[in-house]
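Entry:
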Amino acid sequence: MPSIRSKPLVRAYLGLGSNLGCRRGHLQFAVRALARHGSVAARSRLIETEPLDCPDGGPFLNACLCLESDLSPRALLELALRIERRRGRRRPAWNAPRTLDIDILLYEGQRRAEAGLVIPHPRMCERRFVLEPLAEIAPEIIHPVRLVTVRELLQQLPTPPLRHTRARHGPA
């Protein structure tokens, strides 16, 4: 007998990052925790990047994933914040080094601007460490404000490609 869902599944694209402690372990934890609330439809390889606007931290490991879930954008944000806290995320200052960062980049083509929640992520188009792994899993997704693909956004950035780590299949 087929299962009955009260809400349809949507695709949300998330950016993951860590530059404190066991970076790979923090990202693996995030993927497993998110998967308990949906299905990880795709995930990128890990990339290592120098910190941007985070002068006191070491290099980041970054990745992106696509989560199919029935969570609303607000519920997904609250879940991401809970997962970050469970991995010891503290926010002593803006862009401080972090054990885990989970950002909602895109949510089923929607645009939102609410207290504490802006979709698409307002700085994603400027960040190679977001666009490169996102283009790996969703190159043809259209940015709902810029109305171009993720691949095109990546091609517009002037800086060279990022280094991929030895992990070939992403953070999990």
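Residues 50 and 59 are 5 Å apart (CA to CA).
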